[in-house]
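User: Please predict the structure of the protein below. I'd like the answer in structure-token form so I can feed it into my own downstream comparison script.

Assistant: Understood. Taking the following sequence of 216 residues as input:
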Amino acid sequence: MDTLIAPSVLAADFANLQSEIELINDSTADLIHVDIMDGVFVPNISFGFPVVDAIKKHAQKPLDVHLMIVNPDQYLKAFKAAGAETITVHLEACQHLHRTVQAIHELDCKAGVAINPHTNVELLRDIIRELDTVIIMSVNPGFGGQEFIEHTYEKVRNLKAIITASGSSAKIEIDGGVNMENAYKLIDAGADILVAGSFVFNAEDPKATIAKLKEL
């Protein structure tokens, strides 16, 4: 399977959001990654439903919505209504994770679970068959532009082994510090989806950068 590329709009120019979304539309990217931060689960605040709704109005790629928030269950319907096609919640934020995943699927959305850098992939073994994606955070969540955590490669390999052993069809998504130097190693370890924010939007030619990632 070709690697999927998901530019993160957290790194986009919010004063020109429509043109930034149109740039992604015109690129070889597969998804638009939307990070939702509440200032509680992570030490930063991003944006909420109105901005997601605005992105959806211009997006021609599926919205991959990543909820870095506490109590995500109470907002699932609202993010579905705003245009989310994949909704990912954090394992660390969900007391009843299986119930949350079921609720996402009942909304006809793909369900993902994200794990922070300190979280062991073994905690996903009992739910992996229910998941469409797993996001491995390769930086500490909350801010863009952070340095990639090298231990991520081993986590990807370990998670890939769990997915294979269980017969799951879950895709492995990497979020944080992705660039041309580590992208190939991540794909080689078993990653299926690469989220790239600062690396894409700070590039001299964002569309060419997306194309290079896509070609790996």
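That's the full token string. The chain has one domain: 4-215.
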